[in-house]
Amino acid sequence: MASDYVWAAIFVAVGVGFAIVSLVASWFVRPYNPKGQKLATYECGERPKGSAWVQLRPGYYIYMLVFVIFDVEVVFMFPWAMALRHLKGTSLAVFALVDMVIFVLVLAVGLLYAWKKGVLRWE
Question: What is the CATH number of the domain that holds 55?
Fold first, then answer.
């Protein structure tokens, strides 16, 4: 059992080490020429119009947060459904089902709260 943790630690160390070595190597190899066209704002090949520092309404951030919440919910529900399929007929399956119902209810309460506050209204 302890050897499982050793192998997991080795894989984590190799992964982190590879990321660090790659970033440091690319920092040394890359060309550094911060002038002219490189400092211009890039907008899909079009010439930029105005400043790149445009302030957006806070409502856009609310939409983004609600999207992320429900996106994360789906990301959690798919593996849960696959695991629940293998737990069919056990008491652990009932516990897992109750856990997911609570999770979805908490998210639903958050959605209802946001809806009642009117933050989902697009103006």
Answer: 1.20.58
